[in-house]
Specification:
Layout lengths: L1 E8 L4 H11 L5 E7 L4 E6 L5 H10 L3 E3 L2
Antiparallel strand pairs: 1-3, 1-4, 2-3
Amino acid sequence: MEEMKLNVSGMVCGGCEKRVVNALSTIDGVKEVMADHTNGTVLVKADQEIDKDMVKEKIEDLGFEVEEK
């Protein structure tokens, strides 16, 4: 199983988390998404390799910012 952990700024509540989870769950191969606004993290688990740029774009389309490590 592939895992991708991202730092995301701009999430301030459970509603923000839900929007991110719903958007990323539409990507082929994604099995689980966990967003935590208190830590500013998003964890994506997939059964295949997924395109990090696509994940970033979906998050940024919601108005949040993905912080590069």
